[in-house]
Design a protein that fits this description.
With 322 residues, the chain is mainly alpha-helical. Helix content is 68%, strand content 0%. Helix 1 (9-35) packs antiparallel against helix 4 (122-146), helix 2 (58-83) packs antiparallel against helix 3 and helix 4 (122-146) runs antiparallel to helix 6 (168-185). The longest helix has 30 residues, at 207-236. 36% of the residues are buried.
């Protein structure tokens, strides 16, 4: 069967992008579950209320619908892994990266079960969203690498340019973590009135405002850093990174506007959902920027001048002898 059925690089690239799209969409459906207070619509897992089919209530249907979509996403993720072995020419690196996708979906399902069992404890809910962002790293890597053959893109020795982009990733992850903490302290606990759902309250009534303030500060730092990196790459002529960095800057500006408005309006659920969607898109833009920046030329051990031959550039600088 492996010899009869095969995928071209272009066809497998479409599979990789389909997996990336599905893993991005499931983040939005998961956020919808929390923002509609449907997190405990199904009181147990994997069944819903002790039965295979959900009860006829809006909260149960929303939660069960998200589980059904998650199952479909799992099938797509598994297909990305299996079909990597039918790609011609076969690439081991793509197969290993693709393996992280179904494993991530399985981990999400297990974590989701514990989240329901622990009545939407803040730590579990935050970890649920954080794991989604981690899975997207593998999905972006798979989509990006499937679009480029090994060695087709030259490496660079400009370490400042590359590491400046890479530094945006941990800063972006910190912004996301602070955002999930702010959500965990906010009014959208994920459960309906009367259900035992915990929120973060380590600073009492001021927990939400304290976390929102820190989240906004870190996000502002990310925005300033993104602009600085854009200016650096423009100055050094790195055309391949200007597009993703521009998209990142626009998304961060939109995030700042939406975040400010939603806070002034006391966090309406629909605007929070938009905020989550923009956060996901922003994280994808960060990963896109890192991928577009490329890889560095490995550092080589310093060789004593007396023990090595002069390079052509050094000979040119010396000039003709005699």
């Amino acid at each position: 069967m492996r010899t009869r059925f095969s995928l071209t690089p272009v066809q497998y690239r479409r599979v990789a992008y389909a997996a990336l799209a599905s893993l991005s969409v499931i983040v939005l459906t998961g956020a919808a579950v929390r923002l509609t207070d449907s997190g405990l619509g199904c009181s147990n897992w994997p069944k819903c209320g002790g039965t295979v089919l959900p009860p006829l209530s809006s909260h149960a249907l929303i939660e069960f619908g998200n589980r059904a979509i998650s199952g479909l996403v799992g099938v797509i993720a598994a297909a990305a892994f299996v079909l990597a072995y039918f790609r011609r020419p076969f690439r081991r690196d793509l197969a290993w990266i693709a393996l992280t996708l179904p494993l991530g979906v399985i981990a999400q399902a297990v974590l989701g079960g514990f989240t329901v069992r622990e009545h939407l404890a803040p730590g579990f809910v935050m970890a649920h969203f954080g794991l989604s962002m981690i899975i997207l790293i593998g999905a972006v890597a798979l989509a990006w690498r499937s679009a480029h053959e090994p060695g087709s893109r030259p490496r660079t020795d400009d370490r400042l340019a590359i590491w400046s982009v890479r530094a945006l990733a941990p800063l972006g992850a910190l912004v996301i973590f602070a955002g999930t903490a702010a959500t965990a302290a906010g009014p959208h606990s994920g459960g309906v009135t009367g259900q035992r759902v915990h929120r973060l309250h380590f600073k009492g009534a001021d927990t939400l405002s304290w976390l929102v303030s820190r989240h906004a500060t870190i996000a502002a730092l990310l925005g300033v850093a993104a602009v600085a990196v854009w200016l650096l790459h423009r100055h050094r002529g790195y055309e391949r990174t200007l597009e993703p960095l521009t998209v990142l800057g626009i998304l961060l500006a939109a995030q700042g506007l939406v975040g400010s408005v939603q806070y002034e309006l006391h966090l309406p659920a629909d605007m929070v959902w938009v905020h989550v969607g923009l956060a996901t898109a922003t994280w994808l833009a960060v990963l896109w920027s890192v991928a577009a920046a490329g890889r560095l030329v490995p550092r080589r051990a310093e060789v004593p001048v007396a023990d090595r031959a002069s390079t052509p550039r050094e000979l040119e600088a010396i000039g003709p002898v005699g």
